[in-house]
Structures are given as structure tokens and as C-alpha cells.
Design brief:
There is one protein chain. The protein is of the alpha+beta class and 276 residues long. It has a 3-stranded antiparallel beta sheet, with no helix packed on it. The protein is globular.
Length: 276
């Protein structure tokens, strides 16, 4: 009887593990779809396009995660490294413990709050300068990040409005919209980088009707049924993915030159004179 009970218990645990794994995969896929759609939407917006003009599928947007996830992981890794470094420097002490262990707790409390006060002044100033003095609309994304961060924190920390939040829901309420806006910012930045590029880095051969033409591109983005081609001069076109016969990456002058030479003109390799 004990053996049967053990088997039943083991089977129930295994089945629960499978159910939890299925839920995780479902939530993970849905999150990727939402974030990738936000990325693609802002990317197309930077190019002056919309989903109405671009044939795409849900799998295209999920697959676009391979475009933004590496960059997002790089930012997250940098932030995590900074946090670990600060924890190591602070010896793992909490904020209150650091202030209490100081010889002048009042000054330490003001000093610790200094960066927060500075950012509260610099961020709105930077957003205003970006919004009014630049042709880019990236300031709108920064404004949305700042506005939601300020509003959401004021809600969850309110003595009455924050009562209905648990520790988990409080974090999700604040973080989820910030992550969506941040990923959308990455998409817009990628689109504006393509539009502002001047030097071609792709040579594409494609069919136009019965002819074969070659175009020099500063950017390209391929979907399952269509491809976006960006040429110098902010010229954007959408072509059928099947019309692209060949795409060659162009190497720029200086790609083989060490960064120390390109940046500081030091230790540059000497050119070997050609033998007549």
C-alpha cells in the first residue's frame, strides 16, 4: 500500500510539474509576443510605417525577439553587475544600516538621497530638451517611462491606494509597463539609427518585375512574407521577401584597423608597399 501511495504521489508531483511548465511556456510566449509587438510597432513608427502596410504574422513578431533580446540582456547584465558591485562595496548592508553606521547619519542620509534628487531634476530637463530641440520623438518614450514610474510608485506607496497590492503585484504593476515601454524604446532607436545612417552596409540583388536590380542599403529587416529596405537619404521601401535573390554585407574602410588606431591614431599598422 505504501508503494502504491508513493507512486500516486510521484505521479501527481510529475503532473503538477508538467502543468507548471506548460503555464510558464504559455506566459513566456505571451510576454515575448507583447514585447516583440511593442518593439516592432515602434520600429516601424520610426521608419514611417505601420502594421497596415507591412504583411506580417504572429510568428514574425515572436521571432523578432532575437533582435531585441540580446541588447536587452546586455543592459540587464550591466545593471546586475553594477548592483552586485555596489552591494560588495557596501558590504551587504541595508540603507538604514549604512546610515546608522555612519559618523554623521544626518549627512549620510542627505548624501544617499542626493543622486535621487539630482535624477529627479536632470531627467525631466533632459526629456524637455530632447522633446523641444530634437527632431527625434524618442523623448516621448522617456517621458512615458518617467511618467509611469512616478505615477505607479505614488499609487503603490500611497497609504490608502496601496493597501490592495501584495509585494508581488506591487512589483508587477510598476515593472511590466516600464519593461514594455523600454523595449519599445529599443525598437524606435533601431529604426532611427537606420534612417540616420549614411554609409551603405548591404548590397542587395532583387527582382523587380522582369528585371534584376542591385541596391545599396543602410538597413534591412526581413519578415516571412516581406522585407523592409532602407536606402541612403531616408528612402524606405517594402518588397516581397521572395524577390530578394542575394544580400551581401559590405565591409567598411577601417573594419580591419584596431580600435586603438581608429580612436586614438596610435599603433596603426603600417601599409606594406606593393611590389612592382
Amino acid at each position: 500500500m505504501t508503494q502504491v501511495s508513493f507512486n500516486d504521489s510521484g505521479a501527481s508531483h510529475l503532473w503538477k510539474l508538467v502543468e507548471d511548465l506548460g503555464k510558464f511556456v504559455s506566459v513566456f510566449t505571451s510576454a515575448l509576443l507583447v514585447l516583440s509587438t511593442a518593439y516592432d510597432l515602434s520600429f516601424l513608427y520610426a521608419l514611417g510605417l505601420t502594421f497596415e502596410e507591412l504583411p506580417s504574422t504572429l510568428s514574425d513578431h515572436v521571432r523578432s525577439a532575437i533582435v531585441w533580446v540580446p541588447k536587452a540582456l546586455l543592459y540587464i547584465g550591466g545593471f546586475a553587475a553594477y548592483e552586485m558591485l555596489m552591494r560588495r562595496v557596501e558590504g551587504g548592508l541595508s540603507e538604514e544600516e549604512l546610515i546608522a553606521s555612519s559618523r554623521n547619519p544626518r549627512f549620510m542620509r542627505f548624501f544617499r538621497r542626493g543622486p535621487q534628487i539630482i535624477f529627479m531634476v536632470l531627467i525631466p530637463t533632459g526629456i524637455a530638451v530632447e522633446f523641444f530641440l530634437s527632431t527625434s520623438e524618442q523623448g516621448i518614450f522617456f517621458l512615458a517611462l518617467f511618467a509611469w514610474g512616478t505615477l505607479s510608485l505614488s499609487i503603490v506607496e500611497h497609504p490608502r491606494l496601496g493597501i490592495g497590492f501584495t509585494k508581488t503585484t506591487r512589483r508587477l504593476f510598476v515593472v511590466i509597463p516600464i519593461v514594455v515601454i523600454w523595449v519599445a524604446t529599443l525598437g524606435y532607436s533601431r529604426g532611427t539609427a537606420m534612417m540616420s545612417a549614411r554609409v551603405p552596409n548591404w548590397s542587395v540583388t532583387l527582382t523587380v518585375g522582369t528585371e534584376t536590380v542591385t541596391r545599396s542599403l543602410v538597413g534591412m529587416r526581413r519578415f516571412s512574407e516581406a522585407a523592409i529596405l532602407v536606402e541612403p537619404g531616408r528612402h524606405v521601401s517594402i518588397v516581397s521577401a521572395d524577390s530578394i535573390l542575394r544580400a551581401d554585407a559590405l565591409r567598411q574602410p577601417g573594419d580591419d584597423v584596431p580600435r586603438l588606431c581608429r580612436w586614438f591614431n596610435a599603433l596603426c599598422p603600417k601599409q606594406i608597399p606593393s611590389v612592382p
